[in-house]
Write a structure and sequence with these properties.
Blueprint lengths: L2 E7 L4 H15 L3 E5 L5 H4 L5 E7 L11 H10 L7 E8 L9 H12 L3 E2 L4 E4 L6 H20 L1
Parallel strand pairs: 1-2, 1-3, 3-4, 4-5, 4-6
Bound molecules: flavin mononucleotide (FMN).
The site of flavin mononucleotide has 22 residues, from helix 1 and strand 4.
Length: 154
């Protein structure tokens, strides 16, 4: 069974809620899904999943939520090289933070690309100013994302 790890970065639980809502959808699509709230680089490198989904909100001024900071630091410091890793990004933010909108999700996307990983599909940016329930945007995005992945496997 192919594996999918969802790496969560959250301050107030919104991004975790999205990950938990998406989990059954991916399971129905045939993936073995793990949601990680305290991930380390080993979860990405030593036990590499077939697919990785980063579900990350932004805090401060474009900053990463504390629970995903250890993973980000390890990525920056160890530059592990992630060629062959396929990933997606769901960034939660608020466009009233004009200059740093979805800053964490965008930075993480750039960091993964720098390491040679390949993003599957477009990054989803969920704006709290427009979307009250992030799941409303995330569920259709995830359906399209998984269909794209299955097309690539076929
Ligand atoms: C103190 C604080 C700082 C924030 N800073 C940003 C920011 O710089 N950029 C952004 O896009 N959103 C920012 N946000 C909005 C959150 O990212 C948004 O509300 C998100 O949905 C929270 O998700 P979470 O519940 O997973 O933490 C900030 C929110 C708070 C409370």
């Amino acid at each position: 069974m192919p594996t999918l790890k969802i790496f969560v970065g959250t301050m107030y639980g919104g991004a975790l809620d999205v990950a938990e809502q998406l989990k059954p959808l991916f399971e129905q699509a045939g993936y073995q899904v793990t949601v990680l709230e305290q991930a380390s680089l080993a979860d990405l490198v030593d036990d590499r999943p077939d697919l990785a989904l980063f579900c990350v909100s932004t805090t401060g001024s474009g900053d990463f939520p504390g629970n995903i900071v250890p993973l980000v630091r390890e990525l920056e410091e160890q530059s592990p090289g992630l060629v062959g890793l396929r990933y997606g990004v769901i960034a939660l933010g608020d466009s009233s933070y004009v200059d740093t909108f979805c800053g964490a999700g965008r930075s993480l996307d750039a960091l993964l690309a720098d390491q040679g990983a390949s993003r599957l599909g477009e990054r989803l940016e969920v704006d709290a100013m427009e979307t009250f329930m992030a799941d409303d945007a995330a569920l259709p995005w995830a359906e399209a994302w998984i269909a794209e992945q299955q097309l690539q496997e076929a």
